[in-house]
Write a structure and sequence with these properties.
The chain is an alpha/beta fold. Helix content is 37%, strand content 23%. It has a seven-stranded mixed sheet with strand order 5-4-3-6-7-9-8, with helices on both faces. The chain has a two-stranded antiparallel sheet with strand order 1-2. Strand 4, helix 6 and strand 5 form a beta-alpha-beta unit.
Protein backbone atom coordinates (compact mmCIF):
# COMPACT_ATOMS: atom_id res chain seq x y z
CA UNK A 1 0.00 0.00 0.00
CA UNK A 2 1.24 3.50 -0.77
CA UNK A 3 2.16 5.79 2.10
CA UNK A 4 0.38 9.13 2.37
CA UNK A 5 2.35 12.31 2.42
CA UNK A 6 0.97 14.91 4.80
CA UNK A 7 2.15 18.51 4.77
CA UNK A 8 2.00 20.35 8.05
CA UNK A 9 2.14 24.11 7.60
CA UNK A 10 3.46 25.93 10.58
CA UNK A 11 3.05 29.34 9.03
CA UNK A 12 2.02 31.11 5.82
CA UNK A 13 -0.32 29.84 3.11
CA UNK A 14 -0.21 26.63 1.12
CA UNK A 15 1.02 28.44 -2.02
CA UNK A 16 3.41 30.64 -0.10
CA UNK A 17 6.94 29.94 -1.28
CA UNK A 18 8.51 32.25 1.30
CA UNK A 19 10.65 31.03 4.14
CA UNK A 20 7.81 29.94 6.49
CA UNK A 21 8.61 26.60 8.09
CA UNK A 22 7.01 23.58 6.42
CA UNK A 23 7.34 20.03 7.73
CA UNK A 24 6.67 17.08 5.45
CA UNK A 25 5.75 13.88 7.25
CA UNK A 26 5.37 10.57 5.49
CA UNK A 27 3.43 7.94 7.40
CA UNK A 28 2.23 4.43 6.76
CA UNK A 29 -1.58 4.17 6.80
CA UNK A 30 -3.53 1.33 8.42
CA UNK A 31 -2.75 -1.96 6.75
CA UNK A 32 -6.37 -3.20 6.81
CA UNK A 33 -5.29 -6.85 6.69
CA UNK A 34 -8.46 -8.12 8.37
CA UNK A 35 -10.72 -6.16 6.02
CA UNK A 36 -8.74 -7.27 2.96
CA UNK A 37 -8.84 -10.96 3.91
CA UNK A 38 -12.48 -10.99 5.02
CA UNK A 39 -13.73 -9.01 1.97
CA UNK A 40 -12.10 -11.68 -0.20
CA UNK A 41 -13.30 -14.69 1.82
CA UNK A 42 -16.80 -13.47 2.62
CA UNK A 43 -17.79 -11.45 -0.44
CA UNK A 44 -15.29 -12.44 -3.15
CA UNK A 45 -14.03 -8.85 -3.32
CA UNK A 46 -10.30 -8.27 -3.88
CA UNK A 47 -9.49 -4.79 -2.61
CA UNK A 48 -7.16 -2.88 -4.92
CA UNK A 49 -4.29 -0.75 -3.55
CA UNK A 50 -6.38 2.39 -4.28
CA UNK A 51 -9.36 0.99 -2.38
CA UNK A 52 -7.20 0.12 0.64
CA UNK A 53 -5.70 3.60 0.59
CA UNK A 54 -9.23 5.05 0.45
CA UNK A 55 -10.38 2.97 3.44
CA UNK A 56 -7.25 3.96 5.40
CA UNK A 57 -7.88 7.65 4.73
CA UNK A 58 -11.57 7.19 5.64
CA UNK A 59 -10.54 5.68 9.01
CA UNK A 60 -8.06 8.45 9.71
CA UNK A 61 -10.55 11.21 8.92
CA UNK A 62 -13.26 9.50 10.96
CA UNK A 63 -11.00 9.26 14.02
CA UNK A 64 -9.74 12.84 13.62
CA UNK A 65 -13.22 14.40 13.17
CA UNK A 66 -14.71 12.29 15.92
CA UNK A 67 -12.15 13.69 18.37
CA UNK A 68 -12.11 17.28 17.21
CA UNK A 69 -15.48 18.30 15.85
CA UNK A 70 -18.36 15.87 15.73
CA UNK A 71 -19.68 12.91 17.64
CA UNK A 72 -19.73 10.56 14.65
CA UNK A 73 -19.16 7.08 16.06
CA UNK A 74 -18.71 5.18 19.31
CA UNK A 75 -16.33 2.79 17.52
CA UNK A 76 -12.96 4.51 17.39
CA UNK A 77 -10.34 1.74 17.44
CA UNK A 78 -8.83 0.92 14.02
CA UNK A 79 -9.86 -2.77 14.14
CA UNK A 80 -13.42 -1.87 15.15
CA UNK A 81 -13.65 0.57 12.25
CA UNK A 82 -12.26 -2.06 9.87
CA UNK A 83 -14.69 -4.80 10.88
CA UNK A 84 -17.76 -3.18 12.46
CA UNK A 85 -17.97 -0.27 10.04
CA UNK A 86 -16.26 -1.16 6.75
CA UNK A 87 -16.76 -4.93 6.57
CA UNK A 88 -20.26 -4.71 8.05
CA UNK A 89 -21.18 -2.15 5.36
CA UNK A 90 -19.83 -4.43 2.61
CA UNK A 91 -22.02 -7.28 3.88
CA UNK A 92 -24.78 -5.70 1.75
CA UNK A 93 -23.05 -7.48 -1.16
CA UNK A 94 -24.10 -10.76 0.38
CA UNK A 95 -27.79 -9.91 0.08
CA UNK A 96 -28.06 -8.20 -3.32
CA UNK A 97 -26.30 -7.95 -6.60
CA UNK A 98 -25.86 -4.19 -6.93
CA UNK A 99 -25.84 -3.46 -10.70
CA UNK A 100 -23.33 -0.94 -12.11
CA UNK A 101 -24.64 2.65 -12.17
CA UNK A 102 -27.47 1.77 -9.75
CA UNK A 103 -29.04 4.71 -7.89
CA UNK A 104 -28.52 4.02 -4.20
CA UNK A 105 -29.58 6.07 -1.16
CA UNK A 106 -28.30 5.51 2.38
CA UNK A 107 -30.87 6.85 4.86
CA UNK A 108 -29.55 8.15 8.22
CA UNK A 109 -26.03 7.51 6.97
CA UNK A 110 -24.24 9.19 9.93
CA UNK A 111 -20.54 8.95 9.07
CA UNK A 112 -21.32 7.22 5.75
CA UNK A 113 -22.35 3.68 6.73
CA UNK A 114 -23.14 1.53 4.86
CA UNK A 115 -23.23 3.64 1.66
CA UNK A 116 -19.71 5.02 1.36
CA UNK A 117 -17.77 1.74 1.78
CA UNK A 118 -20.00 0.26 -0.97
CA UNK A 119 -19.21 3.21 -3.24
CA UNK A 120 -15.46 2.68 -2.65
CA UNK A 121 -15.89 -0.93 -3.83
CA UNK A 122 -18.28 -0.11 -6.68
CA UNK A 123 -17.36 3.37 -8.00
CA UNK A 124 -20.06 3.43 -10.72
CA UNK A 125 -22.86 3.67 -8.12
CA UNK A 126 -24.80 6.94 -8.01
CA UNK A 127 -24.88 7.35 -4.24
CA UNK A 128 -27.02 9.75 -2.20
CA UNK A 129 -26.11 10.11 1.49
CA UNK A 130 -29.18 11.26 3.45
CA UNK A 131 -28.65 12.60 6.94
CA UNK A 132 -30.69 14.98 9.10
CA UNK A 133 -27.72 16.32 11.11
CA UNK A 134 -25.78 19.13 9.41
CA UNK A 135 -22.50 18.38 11.25
CA UNK A 136 -22.47 14.85 9.87
CA UNK A 137 -23.16 16.14 6.34
CA UNK A 138 -20.19 18.54 6.80
CA UNK A 139 -17.97 15.55 7.66
CA UNK A 140 -19.23 13.58 4.66
CA UNK A 141 -18.64 16.48 2.26
CA UNK A 142 -15.11 16.90 3.60
CA UNK A 143 -14.41 13.15 3.41
CA UNK A 144 -15.75 12.66 -0.12
CA UNK A 145 -13.63 15.66 -1.21
CA UNK A 146 -10.55 14.14 0.44
CA UNK A 147 -11.24 10.77 -1.21
CA UNK A 148 -11.75 12.52 -4.58
CA UNK A 149 -14.81 10.42 -5.39
CA UNK A 150 -17.42 11.60 -7.88
CA UNK A 151 -21.06 10.45 -8.08
CA UNK A 152 -21.95 11.16 -4.44
CA UNK A 153 -24.69 13.63 -3.45
CA UNK A 154 -25.57 14.88 0.03
CA UNK A 155 -29.15 15.18 1.21
CA UNK A 156 -29.44 17.18 4.44
CA UNK A 157 -33.11 16.36 5.08
CA UNK A 158 -35.15 14.10 7.26
CA UNK A 159 -36.21 10.89 5.55
CA UNK A 160 -39.87 11.95 5.89
CA UNK A 161 -39.13 15.15 3.90
CA UNK A 162 -37.06 13.40 1.22
CA UNK A 163 -39.80 10.81 0.70
CA UNK A 164 -42.23 13.59 -0.27
CA UNK A 165 -39.73 15.50 -2.49
CA UNK A 166 -40.06 14.88 -6.24
CA UNK A 167 -36.26 14.68 -6.60
CA UNK A 168 -36.11 11.66 -4.29
CA UNK A 169 -39.53 9.98 -4.16
CA UNK A 170 -39.56 6.53 -5.83
CA UNK A 171 -36.18 7.38 -7.42
CA UNK A 172 -33.72 4.78 -6.09
CA UNK A 173 -32.95 1.19 -7.14
CA UNK A 174 -31.59 0.37 -3.71
CA UNK A 175 -32.42 2.02 -0.37
CA UNK A 176 -30.20 1.22 2.62
CA UNK A 177 -30.22 1.96 6.34
CA UNK A 178 -28.23 0.80 9.34
CA UNK A 179 -29.13 1.53 12.96
CA UNK A 180 -31.71 4.23 12.21
CA UNK A 181 -35.12 3.14 13.55
CA UNK A 182 -37.34 0.22 14.54
CA UNK A 183 -38.61 -1.63 11.44
CA UNK A 184 -42.23 -0.35 11.17
CA UNK A 185 -40.84 3.24 11.30
CA UNK A 186 -37.92 2.44 9.02
CA UNK A 187 -40.21 0.95 6.36
CA UNK A 188 -42.01 4.32 6.22
CA UNK A 189 -38.64 6.10 5.81
CA UNK A 190 -37.29 3.74 3.11
CA UNK A 191 -40.11 2.48 0.87
CA UNK A 192 -41.29 5.92 -0.42
CA UNK A 193 -37.74 6.50 -1.77
CA UNK A 194 -37.60 3.15 -3.59
CA UNK A 195 -38.49 2.70 -7.28
CA UNK A 196 -41.13 0.15 -8.18
CA UNK A 197 -39.21 -3.12 -8.60
CA UNK A 198 -36.35 -1.82 -6.42
CA UNK A 199 -35.12 -3.15 -3.06
CA UNK A 200 -34.59 -1.88 0.46
CA UNK A 201 -32.17 -3.33 3.02
CA UNK A 202 -32.41 -2.71 6.75
CA UNK A 203 -29.27 -3.74 8.65
CA UNK A 204 -30.35 -5.09 12.01
CA UNK A 205 -29.13 -6.91 15.11
CA UNK A 206 -30.57 -9.89 16.94
CA UNK A 207 -34.11 -8.45 16.89
CA UNK A 208 -34.27 -8.60 13.06
CA UNK A 209 -36.81 -11.40 12.67
CA UNK A 210 -39.16 -10.07 15.34
CA UNK A 211 -38.88 -6.58 13.86
CA UNK A 212 -39.58 -7.86 10.35
CA UNK A 213 -42.72 -9.49 11.73
CA UNK A 214 -43.77 -6.22 13.39
CA UNK A 215 -43.33 -4.41 10.06
CA UNK A 216 -45.88 -6.56 8.17
CA UNK A 217 -48.61 -3.92 8.34
CA UNK A 218 -46.27 -1.08 7.30
CA UNK A 219 -45.08 -3.18 4.33
CA UNK A 220 -48.65 -3.88 3.24
CA UNK A 221 -49.76 -0.23 3.52
CA UNK A 222 -46.68 1.22 1.79
CA UNK A 223 -46.32 -1.22 -1.14
CA UNK A 224 -43.56 -3.47 0.17
CA UNK A 225 -42.95 -7.20 0.41
CA UNK A 226 -40.50 -8.99 2.71
CA UNK A 227 -38.09 -10.97 0.52
CA UNK A 228 -35.36 -12.34 2.77
CA UNK A 229 -33.48 -12.09 6.05
CA UNK A 230 -29.74 -12.86 5.64
CA UNK A 231 -27.60 -13.58 8.71
CA UNK A 232 -24.08 -12.10 8.67
CA UNK A 233 -21.23 -13.27 10.93
CA UNK A 234 -18.33 -10.86 11.18
CA UNK A 235 -14.87 -12.05 12.34
CA UNK A 236 -14.39 -11.46 16.08
CA UNK A 237 -17.96 -10.17 16.55
CA UNK A 238 -20.08 -12.33 18.85
CA UNK A 239 -23.54 -11.17 17.83
CA UNK A 240 -25.04 -12.11 14.45
CA UNK A 241 -26.10 -9.22 12.21
CA UNK A 242 -29.01 -9.50 9.79
CA UNK A 243 -29.88 -7.94 6.47
CA UNK A 244 -33.65 -7.58 6.16
CA UNK A 245 -34.42 -7.28 2.44
CA UNK A 246 -37.78 -6.04 1.18
CA UNK A 247 -38.97 -5.21 -2.31
CA UNK A 248 -41.19 -2.43 -3.64
CA UNK A 249 -44.13 -4.17 -5.31
CA UNK A 250 -46.72 -1.35 -5.45
CA UNK A 251 -46.66 2.47 -5.44
CA UNK A 252 -46.58 4.07 -1.99
CA UNK A 253 -49.85 6.01 -1.35
CA UNK A 254 -49.36 9.81 -1.59
CA UNK A 255 -49.95 10.49 2.14
CA UNK A 256 -46.78 8.56 3.08
CA UNK A 257 -44.31 9.20 4.53
CA UNK A 258 -46.25 11.25 7.04
CA UNK A 259 -44.90 14.54 8.46
CA UNK A 260 -41.51 14.47 10.27
CA UNK A 261 -41.81 12.79 13.64
CA UNK A 262 -45.18 11.13 12.99
CA UNK A 263 -43.81 7.75 11.81
CA UNK A 264 -41.91 7.36 15.10
CA UNK A 265 -44.81 8.66 17.26
CA UNK A 266 -47.44 6.55 15.54
CA UNK A 267 -45.75 3.61 13.78
CA UNK A 268 -47.94 1.82 11.24
N1 LIG B 1 -26.13 4.57 9.59
C1 LIG B 1 -25.05 5.06 10.40
C2 LIG B 1 -24.28 3.91 11.01
O1 LIG B 1 -24.78 2.79 10.98
O2 LIG B 1 -23.17 4.14 11.52
C3 LIG B 1 -25.54 6.02 11.48
C4 LIG B 1 -26.42 5.39 12.53
S1 LIG B 1 -26.91 6.56 13.76
C5 LIG B 1 -27.25 5.52 15.11
C6 LIG B 1 -28.53 7.04 13.17
C7 LIG B 1 -28.45 8.21 12.21
O3 LIG B 1 -29.71 8.37 11.58
C8 LIG B 1 -28.13 9.53 12.91
O4 LIG B 1 -27.04 10.14 12.25
C9 LIG B 1 -29.40 10.35 12.79
O5 LIG B 1 -29.15 11.72 12.65
C10 LIG B 1 -30.03 9.75 11.53
N2 LIG B 1 -31.50 9.83 11.49
C11 LIG B 1 -32.36 9.36 12.40
N3 LIG B 1 -33.63 9.59 12.02
C12 LIG B 1 -33.56 10.22 10.82
C13 LIG B 1 -34.53 10.73 9.91
N4 LIG B 1 -35.85 10.63 10.17
N5 LIG B 1 -34.11 11.30 8.78
C14 LIG B 1 -32.77 11.43 8.51
N6 LIG B 1 -31.80 10.97 9.33
C15 LIG B 1 -32.19 10.38 10.47
Amino acid sequence: MQAHTMRLYTGGFENDSSSHAQTVITFQPMQLEKLTAAARDMFGVDLSAEQRTAFALYAEELIAWNKARANLTAITDPEGIEIRHFLDSLSILRAVNVPPNARVIDVGTGAGFPGLPLKIIQPSLQLALLEATGKKIAFLEHLVGALKISGVSFVNLRAEEAGQAAAHRESYDLVLARAVAHMPILVEYLLPLCKLGGKCIAMKGESAIAEAHHAENALRVLGGKLLNVHPVELPGVAETHYLVVFGKVAATPPGFPRKPGIPSKKPL
